[in-house]
């Protein structure tokens, strides 16, 4: 079932036509995923082709960002292989690992891994970096999303939480590098530990709070508390992170409810976590 009204169907035959000549004899097979932006295909054993699911009219920033950030991070991120800036498709290294479920059972070890990634990102020199393409959803969008999912939300509690968290003070320190879309589907795990990160199309230099939303997706209360202590985060930054987690989940829930079970399960989990349930 299509997730987007303007979604483009991408077949294996389509994928094959995009391959450069040196890859033409490789096997190509689709990858089932909970992603919402790209159709993904394995190309042999070591490469992945990612093709936009919607008409592409953006700057293709990811290959350059992967090259810039990879030397600084404690876990692997994909190495770029080829790309088409006009149509937005990329070929990059396939990284092994499994994406986490939406049960919030990540332990202290995973919390430490995520803290290590964030601390490493925050140390990367920011000269020449640009702002992430995504900003926090505005109030009217979040409230409309609550209305659209009112049948499965405690709407008054959810609205109250959003108003409280989104009122947190701004980031007043120098901007830092952020992943920009640090959701469960972009984490790769093995035996409960972080072994890779993917999808850096939303990376940029700005407020680190956007990346904190991952803690409400994959950790329980004790894991979140441990991560916050290690990062030394003030109340405003922590609350902005919770606002990011809540807004992303609320917008995703009604939009993907009938088309993407992985995304909606993650959204429900995040809403419950932010509300303390």
Task: Give the topology, please.
Layout: H1 12-18, E1 28-31, E2 38-43, E3 47-52, H2 62-69, E4 80-83, E5 90-93, H3 108-123, H4 139-148, H5 155-166, E6 176-178, E7 187-190, E8 193-197, E9 204-206, H6 214-218, H7 221-231, H8 235-256, H9 261-274
Antiparallel strand pairs: 1-2, 2-3, 3-5, 4-5, 6-9, 7-8
Helix pairs in contact: 3-7, 4-5, 4-8, 5-8, 8-9
What does this structure look like?
This protein is of the alpha+beta class and 277 residues long. The chain folds into 2 domains: 82 residues, 2-Layer Sandwich (Phosphorylase Kinase, domain 1), CATH 3.30.200.20; 167 residues, Aminoglycoside 3'-phosphotransferase, Chain: A, domain 2. It is 38% helix and 14% strand. It is built from 9 helices and 9 strands. A 5-stranded antiparallel β-sheet has the order 1-2-3-5-4, sandwiched between helices. The longest helix is centred in the last third of the chain and has 22 residues. The chain starts with 11 loop residues before the first helix and ends with a helix. The model has no long low-confidence stretch (mean pLDDT 95).
Summarize the structure.
By secondary structure, the chain is of the alpha+beta class. Helices cover 38% and strands 14% of the residues.
């Amino acid at each position: 079932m299509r997730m987007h009204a303007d979604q483009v169907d991408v077949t294996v035959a389509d994928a094959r036509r995009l391959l450069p000549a040196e890859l033409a004899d490789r096997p190509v097979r689709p990858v089932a995923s909970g992603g919402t932006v790209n159709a993904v295909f394995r190309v042999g054993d070591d490469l992945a082709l990612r093709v936009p699911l919607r008409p592409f009219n953006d700057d293709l920033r990811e290959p350059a960002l992967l090259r810039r950030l990879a030397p600084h991070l404690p876990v692997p991120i994909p190495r770029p292989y080829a790309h088409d800036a006009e149509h937005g498709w990329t070929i990059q290294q396939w990284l092994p690992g499994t994406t986490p479920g939406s049960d919030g059972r990540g332990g202290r070890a995973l919390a430490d891994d995520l803290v290590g990634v964030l601390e490493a990102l925050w140390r990367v020199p920011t000269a020449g970096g640009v702002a992430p393409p995504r900003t926090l959803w505005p109030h009217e969008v979040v409230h409309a999303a609550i209305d659209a999912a009112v049948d499965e939300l405690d709407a008054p509690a959810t609205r109250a939480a959003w108003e409280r968290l989104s009122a947190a003070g701004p980031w007043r320190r120098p901007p830092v590098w952020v992943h920009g879309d640090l959701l469960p589907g972009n984490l790769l795990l093995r035996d409960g530990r972080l072994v890779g990160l993917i999808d850096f199309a939303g990376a940029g230099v700005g407020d680190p709070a956007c990346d904190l939303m991952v803690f409400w997706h994959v950790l329980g209360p004790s894991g979140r508390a441990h991560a916050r202590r290690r990062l030394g985060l003030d109340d405003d930054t922590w609350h902005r992170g919770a606002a990011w987690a809540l807004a992303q989940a609320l917008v995703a829930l009604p939009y993907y409810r009938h088309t993407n079970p992985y995304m909606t399960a993650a959204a429900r989990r995040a809403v419950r976590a932010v509300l303390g349930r």
